[in-house]
Amino acid sequence: MKHAIMIMGFGNPSVAQATISHLDSDSIDFFIHWDQKYMVPNFKSKHSKIIYTSNRINVKWGQYSEILAEEELLKTVQKSSEKYSYVHLISSSDIPLFTIDYFKDFFDKDAYIGYQHPDLPRLDTRLKFYYPISRINVRNKLWLVKVIKIVNYLLFVDRLRGRSIQIKWGPQWFSLNAKYIGKLLAKDDSIFKNTFLGSEEYIQMSLPQFDVSGRKDTNIEAARYIKWEGYNEPHPKTFTMNDIDELREIINTKYAFARKVNDPNIIWSLFQDR
Question: Most CB contacts within 10 A, which of 6, 78, 159, 170?
C-alpha cells in the first residue's frame, strides 16, 4: 500500500522537512505545493519521493486560491506513474502523530473527512454572498469581510438561489482513498469562486456521501488533532514544547496528524524513544 502525503506549504519549511524525515519510507511519497509568494524549499529524503506541483498558486487565506492549490496537488498525484492507495492533505505546519509502521497499517476506511453540524448562524453567507477579494489578503482585515457582508445583505445577494445545494463544512485537511481523486476533480467547483472560507466546505460538499448522521467529533473523523482557541475569531492552537506530554499521550491512537506547530523539535521530542 502506497501513500501520497500532499503538503500545502508556505514560509518556513523546517516543520515540513521534519515531517518528511519522520515518515521517510518507500511506501510514502510527498507532493508539495509551495505558495507562490515564497521560495520553494529543497526538501530532502532517503526513501520517499518528493514531487513538486508544476503550477504554483498565490494562496490567500480564506479564498478560492486555497482550493486551487489543493486541486493542483490532487492533479499532480493523479498524473503520477505511481499507484497510491491513499492521499492525505496536510499543511506545512502539521506534524505526524503516528510512527511509520502504525501509519502504514492504520488506514482502512475510504475517507477520513470531518463534517461539522453545529448551530452556526449565517454559515451560508460564506457561499451565497459575493466576495470581491481575490487580490486582497484579508487575514488581518476581517473588518473588510464584515463590510462586504453588510453590502451583500443590503443588495439581497444570494448566489445559491435556484441551486439545490446542501451546505456542509468541516476541517480542510483529510485522508482519502485515492480512487476518489478523479471524482473529486470532476466536480464543478464554480460555487466556491469569490466566496469566503470555501476551503472548509470544498471536500465536504464534493464528497457528501461520507457524512454519517450523528457523528460529532470532527477530529476523529478527519484523523486530525486540532484544538481551537478564541471566541469571536476562533483559530487553531499552535502547540509548543509545553504540550509535549499531551501530544505524546495520543501517539499511535486515532489522530494521524496534529495541527499546528512552528517548532520542528516537537517531532524529535515526541518520537525520540520510539
Answer: 6
